[in-house]
């Protein structure tokens, strides 16, 4: 889930003896209610990231009490439930969010991710498609990427490739889509496109273990032994403790 960017209310508002309480929410304007809920969401997610589950739940439930019809109150609580493996409660929270915000692309996308993790692939793809189709939803590339990853999880590489391509059409800088699409092309025996894509990737970001590993795989399949050696040497020199290098030295048969 994306990083939340709400502004925190002052500490005094949250903790002092004269703090705003949920009981006073009826006296607040809609904007004040949303700000109060956002403050609790930010605090709750901070506690969640720090591993303090009790305080995380307390603040996220307070956000829901402040603004039960605010989609971020519900999706944040759903995310908490996912982290503590209370999937039934997480799904109920997502469904409440959809009841209040049925055309919200963020809700649809996040619910799709949840469904995919549960192995409910068709339902997940339906939600991703609905998210992408929403007007004024600007995270289209992320939803296409999520749809692609979900297709991979279900074993549908053809659909995954199509969605990765669409993700990159909307945002050419998406790293996961770039690398996953390169891998799928390599698996298909198409070496030119991923070679160019990985060259551009390395030029922009520098050599990374995963990009070097893909280049080693590509050039080995293409029969370019000198390039395999070149990239393997770079991988070993720059990332000797990486999983990719350990896999290379432990599993490579060096028969090229």
TrEMBL record:
InterPro entries: Pilus_4_PilW, TMTC_O-mannosyl-trnsfr, TPR-like_helical_dom_sf, TPR_rpt. PROSITE patterns: PROKAR_LIPOPROTEIN, TPR. Keywords: TPR repeat. TPR repeats lie at residues 37-70. This is Type IV pilus biogenesis/stability protein PilW.
